[in-house]
Amino acid sequence: MTDTANSLEKGSGQPDWIKPIPRTPEPVLRVYNSMTKSKDVFVPMNGRLIKWYNCGPTVYDASHLGHARNYVTQDIIRRILTDYFGYDIHFVMNVTDIDDKIIQRARHLYLVKRLRDQSNSLDDSLIADVKRAFASYLQSKLVGSLSPEDVPRRGEENAVWVELFQKAKSDPAWTEAGTERDEKFSMHITSLNTTFNALEVATEDLSSGRTGKDRAEALIDSSSDILGPYLDSQFKAEVKDHSIFRSLAAYWEGEFMADMNRLKVAPPDALTRVTEYVPEIVTFVEKIIQRGYAVYFDTTAFDGAKREWSHFYAKLMPWNKGDKELLEEGEGALTSGKGKRSAVDFALWKASKPGEPAWPSPWGEGRPGWHIECSVMATELLGDNMDIHSGGIDLAFPHHDNEIAQSEAFHDCRQWVNYFLHTGHLHIEGLKMSKSLKNFITIREALNLYTARQLRLAFLGHLWNAKMDFRGSAIAETKAIEATFDNFFTVVKALINEANVSEKKLEFRHHYNAPERELTEALHQTQHALREALCDSFNTPEALARLNSLVSLTNVYLGRGRSNVNIDVVKKVAAWVTKMLRVFGLGEGPLPLNGIGWGTVSSSQETDGPIDREAMLTPYISVLSRFRDDVRRLAISQAPAKEILSLSDRLRDQDLVPLGVALDDQEDGRALVKLVDPVTLVRAREEKNAALAEKAAKKAAQAEADKAKKLAKLERGKLDPLDMFKPPHEPEGTYGIWDENGLPLTDAQGVEIPKSRRKKLTKLWDEQKKLHADYLAWTKAQSTEP
């Protein structure tokens, strides 16, 4: 019997000389879960289906860069889960279209507009109203944040306010001290100053007889920030039309969705609005009451409920249960605390006061509390549990903690959400974004400074759940990363296009040597490392760094010269890099046939119908035909070679640029043809020309300065050194005797000039002698010029 047979007979199952090949295990996806404060293995409840609820915007104002960071980051995670890990996602997002902020903002705008429409002329009554609004705003918004010495005494108000407004402009330390007492201090000062100035103008207009409707409107428009709260305190009960609140929310919802579209954020699978779910909210609250936890949600009863498990209020941030400021903010500015058993109890339903929208309920006319809306809409669309609930970290307490409590009370379950994903705060240059700090950047403003791709790249460069500091230096680095990928795609596509049109030469050798094997191995290692990074709670900074490193290695390989490049290996790398960048949402439009690049379609290349071959080719053919005509003309006239080279430069730098063709001169004498967005090429040419013009201007300015300096020097050289220490060039009576060169020997009193003083005078004389010699040489040269 053979050794192999003996081995098998012993029950080993395989010959003992066969050993398992070491295997690299597949990384497991782990996600940082705010609920557990750890990276948990991600396992959906229903196979590959992920049920995901995302807290959407409260629509009462323009969305800002912090919103962009939140929603773009969640879009990145969503794309990674679907496009990379292959999950199916039911993504639900709400829009809060009724809450305290919307109600107040809508009423303010409506009442100011009503006053504007009713004011047909500027009069004492209108000015008095604005003054009362000014005084009210001062008392409620500013006086409390002033230091005692800055608060004016009765009768001195106007003079003191003028002084304080000037101090706000000239004394940053004073403004900073006020901001420490109230972060909106600077904003209040600005609003008051604007109104104060408008009142002075209006008073002057009234005394001069300028009382037209336009003067009244100018005062109201300049004082709108001040008038809104004042008019609201007087007339809010008169605002009864629901459409006033809905129209404001609808407008800002439209603006938000437009901003998300500009940022390339995929729309939700389902979008819900609070006002559309009020009947369901009433039913939901009724059941919570039946279970003994409301009308104000009773957190004490919830914690003490006896079940197979124990309920626990504030699972996400239990340490914040005693934070009065957060609790008050969570309830909203228009909510009273009557009926609470505990300070941490919260409203499920709010009785509507005059000037607030109202819906019928068993408890009277009212409206939903802020927290209940998400519980209801998530339940309606996703059922009694979900895999992921997401939102900004600022929503964790009390909003999400309240959601958890009321939902687990309603469903009588131990756990409503498996994974809470909270995106980190965004700061600007190290500071919390705030209108009062003048670092408040709307999404629209940000997109005027940066592209959607650059913003997404900037967000990808930070861990999704960490605080991000948005700095100018960081965005500069982001642009450099974008340029690296952009240049890489341009070069690779150019090489592929060249390979496709070049003549195939039969070569009896393979083209897969050590450099090709090394690059292929680098691709495989990067693919594994990137998977590990994404499995590590979507570590996009590491993933992006790996892609960047692979591109750098490929660029080194391309540096060997195109005759030594295996384009198939490069194409495979570029196609995978493209795929991964598109997973992150960085693709823009359909990919070209070679499957490489961002996929941006230039507006000049877009077409709605079939391609018109003649229209497409004519611009290129016309440029080449003109170039041929000019070359023939120069050749026939036997012009110098430099004139033909000049034509070549014009073709490269002028004629082909608007067509999106870049010719990259190579060492082997053959240009690499790159197809680039014409806008990008034209912009690059303009920037280059601007830089050259600036350099030339600096050179001309320097030449002019040098010329002026030279003329000044020549002007000084007119003076003969023999006369420089004699009157009138020196005051009469300064010196008494001079030597043959005009150097002083004594002062006016006949005292010999000290040796140290004579040494200094001699040095000055020598300098003047040289200047005079240069002047004489220059005048002689001028006289001999034809």
Brief summary of the model shown:
With 786 residues, this protein is of the alpha/beta class.
Strand content: 5-15%
Rg from alpha-carbon coordinates: 39 Å
How many E-type strands?
18
Tally of DSSP helical segments: 25
Count of structural domains: 5
Mean pLDDT: 85
CATH A-level architecture of the largest domain = 3-Layer(aba) Sandwich
The largest sheet, given as strand count, sense and whether it forms a barrel, is: 5 strands, parallel
Intertermini distance: 117 Å
What does this structure look like?
It is a single chain. The protein has 786 residues and is α/β, with parallel strands linked by helices. It has five domains: 30-100 and 251-423, HUPs (Rossmann fold, 3-Layer(aba) Sandwich); 103-240, no CATH class; 486-502 and 511-583; 613-686; 718-784, no CATH class. The protein has a five-stranded parallel sheet, with helices on both faces. It has a three-stranded mixed sheet with strand order 13-12-14. Strands 1-2 form a two-stranded antiparallel ribbon. The protein is extended. Residues 4-10 and 602-609 have low confidence and may be disordered.
Question: Which key phrases capture this entry?
Answer:
five-stranded parallel beta sheet, 18 strands, alpha/beta, 54% helix, three-stranded mixed beta sheet, 5 domains, 25 helices
Topology of helices and strands:
Blueprint: H1 3-9, E1 30-33, E2 38-41, E3 49-54, H2 65-84, E4 88-95, H3 100-118, H4 124-142, H5 157-170, H6 172-181, H7 185-207, H8 213-222, H9 224-235, H10 242-262, E5 270-273, H11 278-290, E6 296-297, H12 299-304, H13 324-331, E7 346-347, E8 349-351, E9 366-368, H14 372-382, E10 386-392, H15 396-411, E11 417-423, E12 426-428, E13 431-432, H16 443-449, H17 452-460, E14 468-470, H18 472-501, H19 514-535, H20 540-558, H21 567-583, H22 613-636, H23 641-655, E15 661-664, E16 672-675, H24 678-717, E17 735-738, E18 744-747, H25 755-784
Parallel strand pairs: 3-4, 3-10, 4-5, 10-11, 12-14
Antiparallel strand pairs: 1-2, 6-7, 8-9, 12-13, 15-16, 17-18
